[in-house]
Amino acid sequence: MPPKSSLSMSWMLQYLRPVKGRMALLLLLLLATTALQLVNPLIVQRFIDRANESGALSGLLTLAGLYLAIAVLIQLFTISVVYLGNDVSWRATNRIRGGLLKHALRLDMKFHNVKTPGEMIERIDGDVTHMSNFFALFIAKIVGSFVLLAGILVYMFFYDWPIAAVMTAFTVASICVMYAIRDMGVNASQAERQASAALFGLIEERIAGIEDVQANGGVPRLMNRYHRAMRKVFLTGRRAWMLRVMPWNVTVVLFTVAVTAVLLLSVRQYLNGHITLGTLFLFFQYTQMLNEPIEQLGDQMQEFQKAKSGMRRTRELLSLRSEIKEGQEEWLPEGPLSVSFEGVSFGYNEDHRVLHDVSFELKPGERLGLVGRTGSGKSSISRLLLRLYNSDRGVIRIGGTDIRNLSLPALYRRVGMVTQDVQLFDGTLRDNLTLFNPNLTDEEILRTTEQLGLRSWIDAMPAGLDSRLSSGGSSLSAGEAQLFALTRVFLTKPSLIILDEPSSRLDAATEAALQTAVDQLLAQCTGIVIAHRLSTLDNVDKIMVLRQGRIAEFGSREALASDPTSEYGRLLITNREEELA
Ligand SMILES: Nc1ncnc2c1ncn2[C@@H]1O[C@H](COP(=O)(O)OP(=O)(O)OP(=O)(O)O)[C@@H](O)[C@H]1O
Asked: Ligand 1 pocket, 80 CB below 6 A?
């Protein structure tokens, strides 16, 4: 948790600084509205007194007209305040949302592995939305309320100090109570946000796995978990709300006492002939008006508690640092890149190592086939190469440079990967193939797909490159998605490519087409192919067999294939590919 002082207004002000012009205008409008609010009861006071003295009708009509004009002006100003307040809040909170998303996208996989996307949405959007009212009007309303309170009290002291003293006592007591219990609901609100994030995480996770949930008859169990999470949101929400409204409840009680006292005093003054009927109305009206800024302060206090819980969670997220420290090196040699692992060990958590002292070398342009049983650590090697995780020990070099010294954009410009799970985004086929890169022309895309022998697949799509794909990949079969991913990575012209089970979901005929594409891709760069089917590895130069995170065998494919005592050779001869499955 960030230190308490860092939750101060200065953190909030950094987001308001870019909109300070609008904030100033907002404040000005609020002050003008406040001043006008003070004027109208004075007009009514004159109106009542003149009517009481049987004054001229024209004078009364002028006062009524003035009252009406001011009332309309107050409404117009109020609309402008609401508009401007929301505008300021939208701009400031969007800045926070953008900052949070950018930060979250840079956090390492160890962080993301334990957070569901639903939970992240709640943190990036939900928590910030909680702050938006606070951002919109907090400063403006607090200032406006204090000005209105001061205006009423100062005016009253000129008129009648005993009544003014009662009003002041009520105001000071209300503000003190609110200040004393201002943080009462913060922790409870934070618990509410947490429960809500967990609920969203649950919904997202289940919807993402809808096929499995339905196929396994898991809907009732899911609903059961959903209701439990929902109940937690309700209980934490109710508690947070009750604690947040406490300051408001206290002021309501104080207000009732104050109104009674002011009315009693005013009526006595009127009956003694010290004040007119209009002034009696004015006192009553100002007492009523006192309640408004105090209620405003109470409301803002509630917003403050909600916002503070959101701020804490937001600051907490922003204070997390990615384990992946970026290097400065931008340069890598032209053409295919060499790869070397020197004594690399790695575990996703401290007590379970999944790679032990892995060392091997690939020259530029060499192709490595990586085989091993499920869970032997093949994908972990590719994740380390792409710096999705840091190795615990050892050095990984690409093109002779330690990847920890490379900037991440420099690494991703030259290294491509096709995984078993292909991510599609909501957009056209073109957007998805180029990953929204407008510099790639249609000719280039079509030439590439032609070259890969995948053009017929694109032509078969209803609107060619303009065909719309939906995110989640439901608009493509698993095999199509793999062909698609291969084209996507081909377009980036990588110098090192990692193919993680590129043909695991293809039928034999499509696999043959894909093999040609893979061979073409590998002819241009260094490649690492992770495969369960040995036939996928017919054209690689080297083979590495992994067993429980250690290299069991590494050597030239031809040499290993012709050696019946080698593990790879034995697998080929007995054709026991299922051993790898
Ligand atoms: N995100 C993760 N968090 C914790 N452990 C993980 C994570 N991903 C993988 N593991 C564990 O690391 C080990 C190696 O996994 P890895 O994915 O590298 O294996 P693999 O050889 O690629 O398997 P497969 O052939 O099934 O793809 C396994 O024991 C696995 O349970």
From this structure: no
Pocket test for ligand 1, best of 346, 352, 378 (most atoms within 8 A of CB): 378
Residues with Cβ within 8 Å of 167's Cβ and at least 6 positions away in sequence, in order, are: 152, 153, 156, 258, 262, 286, 287, 290
**Residue 272 near ligand 1, beta carbon < 6 Å:** no
CATH of 4-319, one of 1.20.1560.10, 2.30.42.10, 1.10.3720.10, 1.20.272.10: 1.20.1560.10
Best mutation site among 355, 379, 578 for ligand 1 pocket (most ligand atoms within 8 Å of CB): 379
Name the pTM for this structure.
0.65
- Model confidence pLDDT, tens digit, residues 395-443: 999 998 999 998 888 888 889 888 777 777 777 888 888 888 888 888 8
Amino acid (1-letter code) at residue 575: N
Average pLDDT score, the chain: 82
Token duo for residue 220: 């009732």
Task: Please say whether the beta carbons of 455 and 413 come within 8 A.
Answer: no
Q: Which CATH superfamily includes the segment(s) 339-422+476-580?
A: P-loop containing nucleotide triphosphate hydrolases (3.40.50.300)
Domain range list for the chain: 4-319, 339-422+476-580
| pLDDT tens-digit series, residues 57-68 | 777 888 899 999
Cβ–ligand 1 distance for 354 under 6 Å, the answer yes
Contact 353, 372 (CB under 8 A): no
- Tell me the C-alpha distance between 530 and 71, whole Å: 75
Any atom of ligand 1 within 6 Å of the Cβ of 580: no
- For residue 375 and ligand 1, the question of a CB distance below 6 A is answered with yes
Which residue in 451, 524, 511 sits closest to 487, CA to CA? Answer: 451
Beta bridge partners of 545: 371, 553
Which atom, in ligand 1's list, is nearest to the CA of 372?
21
Structure tokens at 104: 């979250």
Q: Decide which of 196 and 574 is more confident.
A: 196
ipTM more than 0.90?
A: yes
